[in-house]
Design a protein that fits this description.
single chain; Rossmann fold; 2 domains
């Protein structure tokens, strides 16, 4: 089998798209002439040019789901995009995540080979349903099973973003931001009950600044506005929404310049890891054995059952350990508890 066109479907959030992108390099290695298209949410599509091996990116927001900080997608625009994809006559669709509505939408495209992991009510829409995801295992280890029906036995997958495509933005930002080493901080999680107290983050930022780093806070405009109200005036601290303009591609460029990333399990954490930035991921609690940083950068993981158990001292211990004892693969025995 030599498919001419493959559709990677990732109608989920930012981190999910980065995980899904790891499927493309082994596909291109096996089928170098295959055209690979990624179908994703609109807000994540900005990263499309950074996804290695991806030829086309098509964006639409599913009408049954909402992106963070956005409304649900609308039926009309979603249907128009789906109809345009149907005309492409893809040979294969790989569903990075296959909830039944996504699987049904892909089935409506008329793609003859549709591969996905089993979920409730999705089997009828897949031609190659695979055993359900084991949520105790790393995301990319489970995702690699999607390649097996194509005859691809991938080695350990790692996600990566291509920073060479950010050269002009990096140069511009480097000139504006100066020579002080950047530390990127992301104090927000997808759920508020997983967020570490802002006071702890402020102490971490102050300590790292005293060590010679320039703190750069990343997050949505609403999150960063809230943070500024708590922090007060700190002229030496940078905020992604005001310093960078808030675009996702500019945030990626700034993250690629950072010497260190510290933040919650989130899309920005996975962007940093995909760009090779040394990363401390905070899980409070989350699923560290499943969604730890799986990019090309070194990392450490700080795990607690509750954000109340995460202290500035514990975060800084992991920062120090990142440079003395970095992790390059999953080992839950090493998660700091």
């Amino acid at each position: 089998m030599r498919p001419e066109r493959i559709l990677i479907v990732s109608l989920d959030n930012l981190g999910d798209l980065i995980f899904a992108s790891a499927l493309v390099p082994p596909i291109k290695k096996r089928f170098p002439n295959t055209v690979v298209t990624v179908w994703c949410k609109a807000y994540t599509a900005e990263l499309g040019p950074l996804l290695p091996g991806v030829d086309n990116v098509v964006a639409s927001d599913p009408f049954w789901d909402r992106a963070p900080g956005h409304r649900k997608g609308a039926l009309g625009p979603f249907t128009r995009v789906a109809l345009s994809l149907r005309k492409e006559r893809f040979d294969v669709a790989l569903l990075a995540a296959a909830p039944w509505r996504t699987a049904a939408a892909v089935a409506a495209l008329g793609i003859p080979m549709r591969i996905g992991l089993l979920r409730p009510r999705n089997q009828r829409f897949l031609t190659h349903p695979l055993p359900a995801e084991d949520r105790t295992r790393p995301v990319l280890e489970e995702a690699s099973r999607l390649l097996q029906p194509l005859g691809i036995e991938a080695a350990t997958l790692r996600y990566r973003l291509d920073a060479t495509r950010l050269v002009r933005r990096r140069e511009d930002l480097a000139e504006r931001l100066g020579n002080t080493p950047l530390v990127a901080l992301h104090a927000f999680a997808s759920k508020r009950n997983r967020c570490v107290n802002p006071a702890a983050w402020i102490m971490v930022a102050e300590t790292l600044e005293a060590r010679g780093y320039k703190p750069m806070w990343v997050g949505s405009s609403a999150e960063l506005t809230e943070l500024r109200q708590i922090v007060g005036t700190r002229s030496s601290w940078l905020y992604a929404d005001s310093t960078l303009g808030g675009s996702l591609i500019d945030v990626a460029a700034a993250l690629s310049l950072a010497r260190l990333f510290v933040g919650h399990d989130s899309g920005p954490m996975h962007i940093a890891s995909a760009l090779g930035v040394p990363t401390v991921g905070i899980f409070a609690p989350g699923e560290p054995s499943r969604t730890f940083p799986q990019g090309v950068g070194s990392f450490r993981v700080l795990f607690r059952e509750s954000p109340h158990g995460v202290t500035p001292e514990a975060i800084l211990v992991e920062v120090d350990a990142l440079f003395s004892s970095p992790l390059v693969q999953a080992n839950p025995a090493h998660w700091a508890k």
